[in-house]
Amino acid sequence: MSRKNDVKIMKDALSLGKDVETFYEKIITKFGNSAKVDAPKSYIGRRVYVVILKE
Predict the structure, then answer these.
(1) How far apart are CA 14 and CA 53, in angstroms?
(2) Which pLDDT value is given to residue 35?
(3) What predicted TM-score, i.e. pTM, was given to this entire model?
């Protein structure tokens, strides 16, 4: 399955393809010497993408 057409990011726009189930925003929090992003348990074992945006 090709994933290159699922998400398109253009200036001031984000396009989600038909194979994207959901999209949500979270804050990265400190976790020991690292960081984490919380996600629902229902996504355990699933492929995910984390997009870091410029401030």
Answers:
(1) 12
(2) 94
(3) 0.53
- Rounded CA-CA distance 41/44 in Å is 6
Do 28 and 37 touch, CB atoms closer than 8 A?
yes
Largest CA distance in the chain: 37
pLDDT in tens, 8-52: 777 888 777 777 788 888 889 999 999 999 888 998 998 888 877
**CB neighbours of 3 closer than 8 A, spacing ≥ 6?**
19
The gap from C-alpha 19 to its chain's centroid, in whole angstroms, comes to 14
> Distance between CA atoms of 22 and 52, rounded to whole angstroms?
17
